[in-house]
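Internal tracking record. Fields below are filled automatically when a chain is submitted to the structure queue. Please do not edit lines marked as system-generated. If the sequence contains nonstandard residues, flag them in the REMARKS field before resubmitting.
Queue: standard
Priority: normal
Entity type: single polypeptide chain
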Amino acid sequence: MAHLIENNAITGKAEIAYANATPWHGLGQQLTPDAPIDVWRKEAGLDWEAKLSPIMFTWDGQNYSEMPNQNVIYRNDTNAPLGVVTNRYKVHQPAEVLEFFNTLVQSAGFTLEVAGAIKGGKRIWALANVNREAVVLQDDAVRGYLLLSTSFDGTAATIGQFTSIRVVCNNTLSMADQEHAPSRVVLTHGAEFDQSLMRDRLGLVVSGFDGMMDKYRKLARQGVSSEYAREFTNNLFPAAYNQQTNTFKESRGFKRVIELFDGAGMGANNYGVYGTKWGLLNAVTQYVDHERGHNVDTRMNNAWFGNGNRVKSQAEEMLLA
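SYSTEM-GENERATED OUTPUT FOLLOWS
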């Protein structure tokens, strides 16, 4: 099993579940689209609670003292430690995340498609189709999604963000990285999880789908030269300087993105894609989502939550500037 999406220590299954088509990472248990939320919790490896326990230490192996204002977070099914936090930290439980989506499924017509855990439960997430779809040009369709994630190791807040996926290649677009981005809602762990507040704020985010599509159509109408494409790509994946030879060597990312842009990418030769800014954006996202990284689960984590997400956000900002 890969290093980030782990096998559940009790069930032996990968801690991820999905409905409909197999996700591009190819991992997890397949469910029916109408599966009850309790089934999602079990099959996604999220059927547990995060608990807090004071941190104790010993100086002689016999006497113990408590470390003030410090707690370890652990999951109550395996008792595995997840992180260290202060007394002010409020846990946002896996059940709360999934129940939030369950409410949206019932009230707003969303469809829960993927849910799971990374790094043994240090981060959990769920992805729902908001049932909004439109075409950029011709049959090049884009679907709207809502991603909700939280951490149990103190490294990230609970984040809801609107994203989009290009159907022809499963490229994940619009994964805003900035904390105050218009397509992103952040709830810190300084307060309890407020489902109503998250839902109200995300309502404004999802309503921006039409505006996002207008931006993509604009990119599809803007042709670029090979010089522009190379300069743009070099800004994202800079060449490495070799002091011994006093030369620059093109990075693997640079060379592969240019290849994808020049026709090797999925759907790269379609009208409105080849030779346009829209084609450049999808060359970057295909490389980050499907090719960059050591294996499939590290690639997914990087593309959604790590440096890959930042690279995609930067690419979109540069192309729309």
